[in-house]
Amino acid sequence: MRWSQLFIPTLRDDPADAEAVSHKLLVRAGFVRQLMAGVYSLLPLGFRVCQKIEKITREEMNRIGAQEFLLPSIHPADLWQRSGRWEAMGEEMFRLTDRKGADIGLGMTCEEVFASLAAELRSYKQLPQIWYQIQKKYRDEPRPKSGVLRVREFTMKDSYSLDIAPEGLDAAFQRHFEAYRRIFSRCGLETLAVEASSGAMGGSESVEFMIASNAGEDWVVSCAACGYAANVQKARSQVVPVENRPGLDAPEAFATPGVHTIEQLAAFEGGAPAEHQIKTLVVVLDGEVALVLVRGDHSLSEQKLQDATGAAEVRHASDKEIQDSLGASAGSLGAAGVTGRRILADLALRGRSGMLTGANRDGFHLRGVDVERDIPNPEWLDLREAQAGDACPLCDAPIEVHKTIEVGHIFKLGTRYSEMLGALVQDESGKSRPIIMGSYGIGIERTMAAVVERRHDEAGMIWPVSVAPFEVVITVVKPKDAAASDAGGALYDALLAEGIEVRLDDRDERPGVKFNDADLIGIPYRITVGPKGLAEGMVEIVERRGRKSRNVAVEKAAATITEAILEERAFSPGI
Ligand code: ATP
Ligand code: MG
């Protein structure tokens, strides 16, 4: 098509509220438009990119033997009640009521519907199966953010594996792992596969596919020496040992007026550095008030706390709950001598003495606390968030902590959904057994945004051919010049005939404007056709990546570009 006929509403300025590069560029280059918070329209360019990501995803899913479905987006409440998630999904689920008063939820994931279909399977002989779809998902995210990176309506490839034995699940998981590596690599993304928390919904193994980027919302721990990589919600690490300060025979209270924080106590005369303090947090685990202890310079990982306790609901206690249970307010809390309450202590506090903590009396702290002597029977758990400077849990080398975007997630579910939704088959001995499920997801628009985060420069996006909205633009420098216009048109026809996705920029604009648009949109190849070059029988080919430019004879241009594009299209890493 000719550019003058296309809808490509490029903007000169970044959207005012945008921070993430992908947010700025996708809006400015006319790929997406926000309709309301966290809800975006895909304009033709954005839609083309997403269709290409979907095509790659389909090819790789079909390659592992998966069968494509398309399920509804509106789900009956009853199905989600049977799995227990009608309640559990809380405010994240969009809900509506039909004219008869029946409750309906908008699909945020599809385990329930697929498990209900799996209930039609009868025998282990019909397994294994991998079922998938590419379909809209709805989540009323508390904080939609960063353009299409975190939205409330998005397209997800979700798949589900069905097996009779755990080994089958392992194999389906492994196949997905490899398919995901190929999908992202074909989209031009280098992924880090990290161990992740299996969360509250049961399941054993969980791996997330991450893209290093400051626009992400996930922190990942990784070890360059041995390759260990885990989401910080799950990551283990070793703390560098701290030498205990001299102890006392018993804890001793001392006045600490105005001291409410770890930092203030560290700076207070008679205080001590954070690694010699115990941080006491009061939490409510499924309605029960409990104390959580971590070292002063450490942070509690709420996900680890949830995973370790199995609590469905974890929240911080209110000021009143804190007063009622400990008789003091936040800033002076401690666990020494506390009885009748569940106390959960992080392993880094084991063997520590000469510690400082709150005295459960406003304005007072204790010193000389020996954790194991003075705190009655804590449950010892790994509760702290790994931090830079800690050592790798596997090889002792220092770990790094960095920000990432989660583009994919593979997850061993187990039998929770098949049991609740009656997806049972007969095994070899005729016994009825629940199907073992795995669940696997990829966010399509988020993947598009991740490519932009990784591949751009100050002038705009830099698409790899595999997912570019189109492959070549022919920029006619002076469309009113008949020779330039004719040569551009001829080249355009020649490339179309080769099956190349080409657009002809025939707009009556200054060359700079057209070049800037082509750069902003990130079209992999530009052919500039202008009267000056043509006088010498030449056109210019510019590669967007690296901005490499060369002049080629007009009659060779179509063949040169076609060759380059076909080579890049064939690029299927990992296969
Ligand atoms: P996050 O931790 O980012 O909220 P999630 O763990 O809720 O993600 P899954 O339920 O595993 O995500 O969904 C599978 C995939 O769907 C994710 O890996 C991501 O690519 C995509 N995805 C999830 N939530 C969103 C969202 N709000 N906006 C865009 N894509 C999303
Ligand atoms: Mg989420």
What is the secondary structure topology, with strand pairs?
Layout: H1 21-28, E1 32-36, E2 39-42, H2 44-63, E3 67-68, E4 74-76, H3 77-83, H4 85-88, E5 95-97, E6 103-106, H5 111-118, E7 129-138, E8 153-163, H6 166-186, E9 192-195, E10 206-212, E11 218-222, E12 229-231, E13 252-255, H7 262-267, E14 278-285, E15 288-295, H8 302-309, E16 314-316, H9 319-326, E17 342-346, E18 355-358, E19 364-369, H10 371-374, E20 379-381, E21 400-414, H11 416-420, E22 424-426, E23 432-434, E24 436-443, H12 444-454, E25 456-457, E26 460-461, E27 472-476, H13 482-497, E28 502-505, H14 511-521, E29 525-529, H15 531-535, E30 538-543, E31 549-553, H16 554-570
Parallel strand pairs: 3-7, 15-17, 17-20, 27-28, 27-29
Antiparallel strand pairs: 1-2, 4-6, 5-6, 7-8, 8-24, 9-10, 10-21, 11-12, 11-21, 13-19, 14-15, 14-16, 18-19, 21-24, 22-23, 25-26, 29-30, 30-31
Helix pairs in contact: 1-12, 2-6, 2-12, 13-16
The structure holds adenosine-5'-triphosphate and magnesium ion (MG).
Adenosine-5'-triphosphate (ATP) binds at residues 109, 139, 141, 150-151, 154, 156, 406-409, 441-443, 446.
